[in-house]
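Board work, copied verbatim: SRPBCC family protein
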Amino acid sequence: MPFVQRRYAHYFIAVLAGLFFALLGRFTFASELLNQGGGLLMLGFLVLIPLGLGAVTEHFAPSADVKGFAFLWRPWLASILFMVTAFVFHLEGFICLLIISPLYVVMSLLGAAFYRILTRNRPGPNGRRSTFIVAGFALLPFVAAPLESQFAAPDDFRRVENTILINAPVEAVWHNIIRVPAISAQDLGPSLIDKIGFPRPVEATLSFEGVGGVRHATFERGVEFIETVDVWEPLRRISFSIVPNTATIPPTTFDEHVTVGGRFFDVLRGTYELQPAGPGQTRLILYSQQRLSTRLNPYAGLWTDYVMSEIQARILRVVAKRSEAEAAQATSASGIVSGRH
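↓ predict structure ↓
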């Protein structure tokens, strides 16, 4: 039996054509020529290449296969095959591929649909019109790239906020936020961000209490942030600037496009606020400010907001658990003393 049966050969060629086009786009946009303009985070690569992938895949598909929406599986398969190839050959990190994969799948499907609409009367590779149309889809990313590279990516300053209600007095909560002793994986519990490769928080130290104090917030795999306190309101609020300690972060921890403190993303500030919420209760609020500098900030922000919110929520749960345990222990000890008297 031949490797690919003859009746499926056209489908095989179509998917491989889409894969080849995506790989060509990947190497072109990752080149030094376009890297300064944004490289793989340019709209040409994130939007126009998958559009072209869909059109190219559809162009090489059998012209007779025009029934319904069944044609959509080809660009979908070519997009997934591109992601798998990029991961297997270490062309991109898993986190980056996960982020761009929904965009690639959707845009490639649109590319295939647009190609179908524009060549409705002459589908397939035989018509001159369809050849011109697929050439337009294929050339557009590379023609537009030099123009796009002349414009800087906009900065988007985003705030992510998490809140938790803790059954412990303000004093117990304050004690557990200014310094955070070692956190185990059991303390944090499972999370999707662990599975996709983000390092877990480990601990936070403080050089001294007050404005000017320096916190060292460490994460797994050598990730460390230097946090300088510039607002110190005991039992009410602590706020600090955040600078990644690039000397301790191995280059293999993050992909270039998601490196904290890089040209595309940075975490700038963090703040804890404590609010009395009733007898023996405290409302703890943690919010941070990030800088996002991509050409698709609204889309990229969905991912960065999710990751930051998940990190903050896990830290708040650890603080809550420890504060409530200390409060319960203090109440128990107080009851024993009272009983003795």
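The longest helix spans residues 297-340.
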